[in-house]
Amino acid sequence: MNQPIAPRILTDDLLLLAYGPDTGRPLADTNRLQCGLAGALIAETVLAGLVAIDGDGRLHTTGSHRTGVPDVDGTAERVAAEPRPRKVKWWVQQLNKRQLRQHLLGRAVHVGVLTQQSHRVLRILPVETYRPEPEDRERAVWALHSVLMGYAAPDSRSAALLAVVGAMRLDGKLFADVPARERRKRLKALADRDDIGRAVRQVIQSIESAVAAVVVSSGGGDGGGGG
Question: What percent of the chain shows pLDDT beyond 70?
Fold first, then answer.
């Protein structure tokens, strides 16, 4: 019997945007990509109602029901198991690991967001590429572009995804037609909107600053690379 396809989560959507369909390589350096994935995973737990952010920016579990998605539930369980509440930046630092990136790439392949291909450079060095389906990626970029430009009203998920995209500095590659100053202004305005909910606004603002801080503290990553 075939296993049902797992529901897509924010990390899947982020990987769809973060990998080039022509090259199968990430459009952000490794550290930004891993920080972005960590932030997206945290945002997913908040959107699912499993985790909340207090007034000091620390994460707490809510005691809500499990989602049935192991990556989301497992992240909430890690938050619950921590002896004291920690800020989003601390969690981004903890989750910013190669193992998480590899695991979430495998998950994205499983749910059909990416296609994994293996080959060798000079017949020696193994290289993995992860290609999104061009039409799927184009639709996803256009949907976010519509939200960014105000053509479509933002929902909590699109607002959170745009926040992570902005924190990773992917916005310049995805929305190159929008001048940089206008892009940043619009991304900030989205994070401040009242209609996406207080909890989501909090996680967006926390993740933006956390990803930026972790990237700066670690020197900005290794300049790119494969999955």
Answer: 90
Asked if 79 and 48 touch (Cβ cutoff 8 Å), the reply is: no
In a domain, 226, yes or no: no
Per-residue pLDDT reduced to its tens digit, 155-192: 889 988 998 999 888 999 999 999 999 999 999 888 88
Residue positions counted in the chain: 227
184 domain residue, yes or no: yes
- The sign of the dihedral angle between the CA atoms of 45, 50, 54, 60 is negative
Domain assignment present for 1: no
Confidence at residue 218, expressed as pLDDT on a 0 to 100 scale? 66
CATH number of residue 28's parent domain:
1.10.3630.10
Q: State how far the Cα of 19 lies from the Cα of 25, in Å rounded to an integer.
A: 5
Backbone angles phi and psi of 142, in degrees to 5: -65, -40
Q: How many domains does the chain have?
A: 1
Does residue 77 belong to any structural domain of this protein?
Answer: yes
